[in-house]
């Protein structure tokens, strides 16, 4: 029996007041308001966290692991997102932060920079030089954007670069090294990611493009922040930094493109702006574009919903820290080894990304066509103002819900009020003010 699909974004009904903030913000129309409460349509949700960011009542939250996950394994490895470096005051160094994480109870701490530098080298020195690649290349480091493409832009799936994320590559290499060092079996070694992002949890429980994740858990940056703070300046600082300046800038919008040395690129942050550009790419209006870097959160990963610091302040701190790090200057031998890892499939996607049909009205094509006609006819009687009062994000979504039988209590309040007004005017003898409902 197939496991139920896991989502990291959940709704706390007791806090929901049925406002329409999340309804209008959701990029995939995955939210409805029914009986005064929001409802998340699981098959549409991409766990971008936009609703978490905008909910005034904290009714949306993210499912992540607690620090108790450390106790499940004999040997534990922490991989912090480099966004973490921007969450602390400017006088706190990277080694101090990494050492503090280790003091919490981890045996090892690996920077995700390890995977980033490998990806940068393989893409810039190997993949971009292939004559048959489909452009623009889309680097699916952001799991929310990857699922957005799967759901809304399936024609762009072939544009996605066939390589794993920096976190997955780092986790795989860290586990293999731990197996050699400890002699423990891989299942007794736990790799925990410290995340600024809701979608990362989903990418571990229900990975896309790979059969299984090498990460065993995700701890929210908000959850672990206090523990890191308590362990700062609590003993000698270890030298744990492995990253380069280029890798440190990767979580900031534009950082990927710059590190790859690509001139003809487009870096876009904010999921709604990303959608606009993907629409342009889908319509082949950006044919000369080589590389598209899309990040769901404003500013990049620094704007993730599980962060604490203002993204602009975090970005400034990360840039300041990056100045003290060396650039990514691998030897020819190292690059050759990394390219072999790619060609041998060690760091490539292992599963085909299949389109996720959320717009299909019916499994039967004939019935689906008939329902499309019903929606088209129904739209003639709707106001087309997409107010959200009905509990659907748009008038079309409202009509679709009715046709699919998902909203049996559907009422367009705007149209109802308009009809009542017309009847009142007709009763008062004001002929000519009665609106023909058959017109748009």
Short synopsis of the structure:
The protein has helices at 21-25, 50-54, 94-103, 113-125, 143-152, 166-182, 199-205, 221-231, 245-248, 255-260, 271-282, 311-322, 332-343, 365-379, 395-403, 413-427, and strands at 9-11, 31-34, 37-40, 60-62, 75-80, 108-109, 137-138, 189-195, 217-220, 265-269, 291-295.
Task: Please explain how this structure is put together.
The protein is an alpha/beta fold. It has three domains: 9-62, Alpha-Beta Plaits; 67-343, no CATH class; 365-427, Orthogonal Bundle (3-methyladenine DNA Glycosylase II, Chain A, domain 3). Helix content is 37%, strand content 10%. It has helices spanning 21-25, 50-54, 94-103, 113-125, 143-152, 166-182, 199-205, 221-231, 245-248, 255-260, 271-282, 311-322, 332-343, 365-379, 395-403, 413-427, and strands at 9-11, 31-34, 37-40, 60-62, 75-80, 108-109, 137-138, 189-195, 217-220, 265-269, 291-295. Strand 10 (265-269), helix 11 (271-282) and strand 11 form a beta-alpha-beta unit. Helix 4 crosses helix 6. The longest helix is centred in the middle third of the chain and has 17 residues, at 166-182.
């Amino acid at each position: 029996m197939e496991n139920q699909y896991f989502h990291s974004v959940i709704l706390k009904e007791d806090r929901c007041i049925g406002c329409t903030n999340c309804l209008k913000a959701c990029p995939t129309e995955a939210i409805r308001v029914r009986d005064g409460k929001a409802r998340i349509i699981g098959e549409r949700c991409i766990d971008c966290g936009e609703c978490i960011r905008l909910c005034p009542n904290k009714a949306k939250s993210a499912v992540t692991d607690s620090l108790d996950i450390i106790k499940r394994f004999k040997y534990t490895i922490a991989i912090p997102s480099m966004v973490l470096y921007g969450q602390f005051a400017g006088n706190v160094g990277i080694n101090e932060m990494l050492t503090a994480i280790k003091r919490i109870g981890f045996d090892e701490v690996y920077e995700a920079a390890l995977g980033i530098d490998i990806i940068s080298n393989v893409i810039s020195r190997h993949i971009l030089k292939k004559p048959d690649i489909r452009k623009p290349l889309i680097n699916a480091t952001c799991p929310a954007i990857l699922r957005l493409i799967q759901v809304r832009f399936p024609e762009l799936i072939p544009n996605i670069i066939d390589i794993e994320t920096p976190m997955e590559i780092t986790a795989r290499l860290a586990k293999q090294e731990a197996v050699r060092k400890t002699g423990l079996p891989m299942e007794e070694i736990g790799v925990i990611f410290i995340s600024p992002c809701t979608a990362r949890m989903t990418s571990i429980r229900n990975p896309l493009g790979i059969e299984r994740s090498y990460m065993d858990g995700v701890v929210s940056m908000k959850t672990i922040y206090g523990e890191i703070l308590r362990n700062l300046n609590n003993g000698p600082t270890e030298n744990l930094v492995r990253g380069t300046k280029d890798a440190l800038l990767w979580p900031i919008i534009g950082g990927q493109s710059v590190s790859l040395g690509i001139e003809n690129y487009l870096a876009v942050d904010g999921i709604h702006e990303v959608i606009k550009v993907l629409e342009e790419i889908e319509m082949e209006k950006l044919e000369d574009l080589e590389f598209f870097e899309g990040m769901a959160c404003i500013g990049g990963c620094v704007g993730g919903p599980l962060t604490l610091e203002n993204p602009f302040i975090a970005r400034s701190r990360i840039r300041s820290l990056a100045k003290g790090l060396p650039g990514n200057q691998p030897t020819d031998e190292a690059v050759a080894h990394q390219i072999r890892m790619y060609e041998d499939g060690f760091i490539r996607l292992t599963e085909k990304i299949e389109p996720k049909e959320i717009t299909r009205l019916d499994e039967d094509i004939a019935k689906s066509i008939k329902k499309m006609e019903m929606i088209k006819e129904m739209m003639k009687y709707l106001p087309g103002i997409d107010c959200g009062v009905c509990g659907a994000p748009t008038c079309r979504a409202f009509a679709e819900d009715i046709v699919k039988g998902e909203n049996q209590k559907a009422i367009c309040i705007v149209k109802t009020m308009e009809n009542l007004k017309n009847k009142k005017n007709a009763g008062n003898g004001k002929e000519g003010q009665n609106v023909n409902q058959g017109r748009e």
